[in-house]
Design goal:
It is found in: Cell membrane. The chain has 22 helices and eleven strands. The chain is an alpha+beta fold and 733 residues long. Strands 6, 7, 8, 9 and 10 form a five-stranded antiparallel beta sheet that branches.
């Protein structure tokens, strides 16, 4: 591995024009593809294998033309104080609004509140439901403007009018904080390298990699049904790892220059050693992201694969474009320890041990105290995770400043909290002798269940073999009581199936959310086993040790649990919610735990590989275990710290997103990187290695013989072992 990458690095340095041209061409090609591709609509959300999805598919088949996946809007009216919606003036205003709403070309149906009996018992609240041909993300601006204009006209007449549903769904934006994150990364790079040129290389290559990845996703979005969150996630992770991978190779290049090697040789050795770590770190991230496909939720699978593709591009750019740009930079990239004009020249006085060396020496002397403090601290941060509540966002989780949230509250006030989460029961009686009787029996059975407020009469299709029944719960959509009602209807459906051979299925957004949460919970353990297992095997090959990969996996579990605890504290409990821009607290999104497990594991292994390979390299080259730890920190601690700060800054930049899912992911990943880099990798890892001593690097002889030698330490590049073309490797540039 090291020899191959060494040759690749030297080739890219020598043929820098060719290497740079390839990446510029790929960026141009991806950009042209993105610009000419048709605009992508909202990604379809399907959950294969769930009852809610089966019912939805059955509706599409048995009720053709119903636009079951089309956008909906609930225009909610409230009468002025002391008046009712049934008063002649208010009724005339509502009917005029309904008429205006019906004029849109994309509107399929508008219900009149007075004909549909959509007026509350006290007469103060009424609503009209608008159904559209296309989804909320595909709805054109003219239709949205017409919807809002109609509501405004009714407001002028004195009514309170709010709009719920997904018709006003907007494309999420990340805000200026994303740019701030990149700016913080730039400052950290300048401080780390002491040179604008050296600091600019990781930023430039990361932006090129993200540009190619996001442009490719945009170009394929329509064909592959990719949603807007897909490119946001790819950008988030691509920027973070792209900067980090380039940072490690540039840092190693400067270290090789400081040892007296010429620039081409230094580039080759940097790619051969740090590049090997980049390859394996990238592989762990790719494994974690692609492994999300085991959950069998198409949206999550697409997000994972797209982000993994961007990570793969970041690895390839670090191995080829960075050495090419180092060739262009020439003497403007200084050897390690020699600062450019920006920060002044290094003093000729002997340098005192750097902070990484001093910290590692302290940990080696006090491993038990450091280990206990780190574990207890992370354990305390993880305590809130015990109160984790999962769910998917609805209008009730929107900020109170939005019309969607105000419409949600008005409907709860007028019709009860369960009205915002109606259950759609689909009765398939195609194989029954008397479908009409089955429909009636199903409705009567549901009426007898607890927590049921209203059951509408069955509405059969034209063929008369399938009917829909709307059930209004007494509890809000995200409550445990509503979840129990869904299971109760399904249990009753099993009895009906046994008696009449008819299928009773429950769907709707509330039932779909419940099914998604259960599916994600069921997939978490298999996913952990797959991803952690594959990465464990990979790290055994890299470190040629059993205990080091085991320690890495256990440290990851600590950091991810602590990060989940922080997410619960902020987004569920409301701690620091104003600082984080969280206007409405509520359940943590169902996919957050499994997503954090995947992404954080991959990123955690980045720092494990980068830091511990330096220790492994020193140990293999003859140093004692304790001294190897100090050596690893002397060479790697500053760079790992810079990489972690950069990654935290990039992730934190997405906290400014208007999309609650992106905001939560940005915060979760940023805090997870903090816990993993500064507590686990910088404190717990050296403490454990100090306690294990030589046992840390133990590997059974039979396994040592069976494993391939990937040579991450660059042993083949040492004097006497280097390739034949390295005779000039000690000539100073």
């Amino acid at each position: 591995m090291a020899t191959f990458l060494y040759k690749l690095g030297r080739l890219s340095f020598r043929r820098r024009h060719f290497a740079a041209l390839i990446w510029v061409a790929l960026l141009t090609l991806a950009g042209v593809g993105a610009a000419s591709a048709p605009a992508a609509g909202n990604s379809s959300f399907s959950i294969p294998g769930t009852e809610a999805q089966k019912a939805f598919d059955l509706l599409e088949q048995r009720f053709p033309g119903a636009s079951a996946d089309g956008a909906t809007a609930r225009v909610v009216f409230k009468a002025p104080s002391g008046e009712k919606m049934t008063d002649p003036g208010n009724k005339a205003t509502v009917q005029e609004t309904v008429k205006e709403l019906s004029d849109g070309s994309e509107v399929t149906r508008v219900t009149d509140p007075y004909q549909a009996k959509a007026v509350s018992k006290d007469g103060t609240v009424a609503y009209a439901q608008v159904s559209y041909k296309v989804s909320g993300m595909e709805l054109d601006d003219a239709a949205k403007d017409a919807l809002q204009d109609s509501a405004q006209d009714a407001r002028k007449a004195g009514l309170t009018v709010e709009i719920g549903g997904d018709a006003l769904q907007a494309v999420p934006h990340t805000g200026s904080s994303e740019i701030i994150g990149i700016a913080v990364a730039a400052v950290v790079l300048v401080i780390t390298f002491g040179s604008l040129v050296a600091a600019g290389l990781p930023l430039l290559t990361a932006l090129v990699g993200v540009g190619i990845g996001v442009s490719a996703i945009t170009a394929l979005a329509s064909a592959l049904d990719l949603g807007t969150t897909t490119s946001t996630l790819a950008m988030m992770i691509g920027l973070a790892v792209g900067i980090d991978y380039a940072l490690f190779i540039v840092s190693r290049y400067r270290a090789e220059l400081a040892e007296g090697r010429d620039r081409e040789e230094a580039a080759g050795r940097a790619v051969g050693t740090a590049g090997s770590a980049v390859v394996f770190a990238g592989l762990t991230v790719v494994i974690a992201l692609v492994g999300l496909s085991v959950v069998n939720i198409p949206m999550l699978t697409k997000m994972g694969i797209a982000a993994a593709g961007t990570v793969a591009i970041a690895v390839l750019i670090a191995l080829t474009m960075i050495p090419a740009l180092l060739g262009y930079a020439g003497r403007r990239v200084k050897p390690a320890g020699e600062k450019g004009k920006l920060l002044g020249r290094a003093s000729k006085k002997p340098e005192r041990p750097n902070l990484g060396t001093r910290w590692a020496s302290f940990v080696v002397r006090r491993p038990v105290a450091v280990l206990l403090l780190g574990v207890i601290g992370l354990g305390a941060a993880a305590v809130p995770a015990g109160s984790l509540e999962l769910g998917l966002p609805d209008d009730g989780s929107q900020p109170t400043s939005t019309t969607q949230r105000r419409a949600y509250d008005l409907l709860s006030e007028g019709f009860g909290p369960g009205f915002n989460g109606p259950l759609m029961v689909v009765v398939d009686a195609k194989n029954s002798d008397d479908p009409k009787a089955v429909f009636g029996d199903a409705a009567d059975e549901i009426k007898g269940l607890d927590d049921v407020v209203t059951v509408t009469p069955p509405a059969p299709n034209k063929a008369g073999d399938t009917a829909t029944i709307t059930v209004i719960p007494d509890s809000k959509p995200s409550s445990v009581t509503t979840e129990n009602l869904v299971h109760g209807i399904r249990d009753a459906g099993a009895d009906i199936k046994a008696d009449t051979d008819a299928n009773v299925l429950v769907t709707g957004s509330t039932a779909m959310n419940i099914d998604v949460s259960e599916k994600l919970n069921d997939a978490l353990v298999p996913y952990l086993v797959l991803v952690v297992g594959l990465a464990f095997l990979l790290l055994i090959v890299v470190f040629r040790s059993i205990l080091v990969p085991l320690k890495a996996a256990l440290g990851f579990l600590l950091s991810v649990m602590a990060a989940l605890g922080a997410v619960v504290a902020v987004f569920q409990w409301g701690w620091l919610s104003d600082l984080m821009g969280v206007e409405q607290t509520g359940p943590v999104m169902s996919m957050m735990p499994i997503f954090m497990v995947g992404v954080v594991f991959g990123l955690a292994m980045d720092y494990e590989v980068f830091l511990v390979t330096r220790m492994r390299e020193a140990y293999v080259h003859g140093e004692k275990p304790a001294q190897a730890i100090v050596t690893g920190f002397r060479h790697g601690a500053r760079v790992v710290t810079a990489a972690a700060v950069i990654m935290m800054a990039v992730f934190a930049g997405f906290i400014g997103s208007s999309e609650s899912m992106v905001k939560m992911i940005g915060f979760g990943l940023a805090i997870a990187v903090f816990f993993d880099a500064f507590v686990v990798r910088m404190a717990i890892v050296p403490a454990v290695l100090a306690l294990l001593g030589r046992k840390a690097w133990w590997l059974p002889k039979w396994l040592d013989r069976a494993l391939p030698n990937v040579d991450v330490e660059g042993e083949a590049l040492r004097p006497g072992s280097a390739p034949a073309d390295t005779d000039h490797n000690l000539v100073r540039a």
